Fold this sequence. Notes:
By secondary structure, the protein is of the alpha+beta class. The protein has 12 helices and 20 strands. The strands form 3 sheets. Strands 5, 6, 12, 13, 14, 15, 16, 17 and 20 form a 9-stranded mixed sheet that branches.
Amino acid sequence: MSGADAVAHATDVVIIGGGLVGASLALALEPLELSIDVLESIPFNHDAQPSFDERTIALTWSSRRVFEAIGIWSEIATDACPIHSIHVSDQGHFGCTHLDRSLINTDALGYVVPSRTLGHALLNRLQDSIPIRYHAPAVVASLQSDREFVNVQVDNASHDRKARLAVLADGGRSALGQQIGICRLEKSYPEVVLVAMVATDQDHQHRAYERFTQHGPLALLPAGPQRFALAWTLPKTTAKAYAELPNEEFLSRLQMSFGERAGVFCNVGERNTYAVGLTELYQPVSGRVVAIGNAAHIVHPVAGQGFNLGLRDVAELAENIVNATEHHQDLGSMAVLSRYADHRRVQTRRVQHFTDGLLRIFSNDYPGLNLLRSAGLQTLDMMPGVKRHLLRRTAGLRGPLPRLARGLPLRPN
């Protein structure tokens, strides 16, 4: 046994990454009477954690259910702006479609929540938790699995751990996945996403908009009284130019591309741009380590599915862990982790193909394609059954749902 092994503290589960996904998993596992360690590379400071910045997150209905089940929805509900309907249109063409919550009989299609609000709620709960130990800063240097444990070596040796299961939830920021043989398939897009808060002179009536413009998809999500969260996919050079425009000129360009369905744009906050891409792991499991969230997959934000996909990982993995404990199985065994990975691979690919397909269809100007898009949107608007199917998919309600995604406790009472 090496010196590092001799001083490593034994635990059941180590979660590497204390951002939104890692923190959510820790709280999901809290009732299971397991010892849980969260290792976060950034110091324990709400403002320093990149997951908790000024961006907003679109939560699906099933994601709300997860947060209800782990007990933090009440702490974020005040700042969560519900989406009751979505209007989809294609710039310069007559076709459009309208999607409403009544089609799936839910209170909302989703919610728009400030990242910082969600981050504060998660970290506050982690601080109050007895079975969860949160270590920050704690930079993981290496992972090594053997028959019984995964040895987690941290730059600060006092945080070294050996666990039955390690969960990689660091957003793909580290090289740990590559170090342990988890191979990534990556696709970069030539566009970036410009994000900002914009104000209009009209009430949004809890309607979101998805507009396919000549430059790229433009999403407006209701984020407060007469305020929208803007996410506009643009070519890199265009995005850079738009980010540097004076406010009035930027609002004029936005108005020209979007039209006046949401009213007149009268103010804009700080504008930032973010790279976008598609990442998939050939196999998110290696030894006693499993990757979740952005450490396992990244999708284009065109349909707002990224974080929701990671939260579904949380719900599915937590259910696999509770099933393993009830059947006295090894948490980090290949049998347990492969069962999780095989199921998630199918779900993840569906979302990736869906978002990538949307981008391909609505970001190309091949002759005649714009007319087909327009006719397709108009036809979709007259097919409530197809719209219901689409909404159930984007709301996270298709297929067998894990207990947390149904708002139920992880372990039946």
